[in-house]
Structures are given as C-alpha cells and as structure tokens.
Amino acid sequence: KSPMGRRTLDLVLTAGGVLMTVVFLVAGSLLMWGATFTTGTVRDQLAAQQIYMPAAGNAQLADPKIGPYLNQYAGQQLVNGDQAEAYADHFIAVHLEKVANGQTYAQVSTQAQAKPTDATLKAQAATLFQGESLRGVLLTAYAFWTAGQIAMWASIGAFVAVGLMLVLVILGT
C-alpha cells in the first residue's frame, strides 16, 4: 500500500491544478497588458508622425518594388507595425537606392569627409542619413508591434490553459 492515500493524492493534485490556474491567469493577464501597451504605444507614436501611404493610382505604386507591398495600404495613414515594415522596406529603401547608386549613408559619408567641398556628396549623405534613420525607426516600431502581437497570442494561450485547468480542477474535486 502507498504511504499516501487516494484522498491525499486527489487534494495534492487539485491544489497543484489551482496553483497552475492562478499562474496561467496571472501570466495571461500580464501578457495581455504587455500586448495592449506595446501595440497601443506603437500605434500612437506612428499616428503622431502623420505618414500616409501613396494614394491608390499613384505612379509610385506602379513600381514592382513598391506596389505589391503598399497597394493594400494605399491612401491609409501608417499606424501599425505591418504598415511600418512595408513602408520602410518597400518605399523608403527603394527611394534610398536611387540617392547614390545604392550606396549607404556610411559609404557616402566617408566619401563626403574625404571631399569636404563636394556639395553633391554632402547632400547625398544628409538624405541617406535622414532616410536610413526614419527607416530604422519604422523597423523598430515593426519589431515592437510584432512582439506585442506575439504577447497577445501567448495571452490567449494562457487564458485557454486557465479554462482547461479549471475544468480539470472541477473534475478532480
């Protein structure tokens, strides 16, 4: 005969189930708060920038490097991570490629420092710096937005686990 009786085992397992239910409930709540905070902050900060996608029919959307990625957002204000990623990688990046034959800010800046009187290099460096900075900020917003979306799905999973644990606890009592 085992040293622990059936009733004692049932109580231990039920208590463990209650504890797991509380853990999942707390985790789900914190994950949902994180998701709401992250996506809300990203949305508010992006909206404040007043960036709009090119309107439907805009000639820029005909570019095969731009259109397939931005047509779905045509004319919309940029307010979420998916839009930020599309705009950064398929609008800003495409335009930056044309500034100095595909060279980056670091490359052009080095050249401009070697030729401090070259106004063209100086202007290209300034344009690339601003464009790459905006692109980086938008891609950071995309990363945080994505983290918020992952937290939202994880919170849903935790709440499903709460429901499952509650059923198991009730069946175990």
Largest sheet: none
List low-confidence stretches.
Answer: none
Q: Number of helical segments?
A: 5
Straight-line N-to-C gap: 23 Å
What fraction, in percent, of the residue positions are helical?
over 70%
Rg computed from alpha carbons, rounded to a whole number of angstroms: 26 Å
Proportion of strand residues: under 5%
How many DSSP-defined strands? 0
Task: Specify the structural class.
Answer: mainly alpha
Q: pLDDT average, as an integer?
A: 94
Shape: elongated
User: How do the helices and strands follow one another from N- to C-terminus?
Assistant: HHHHH
Task: Briefly say what this structure is.
This protein has 173 residues and is an all-alpha fold. It is 74% helix and 0% strand.
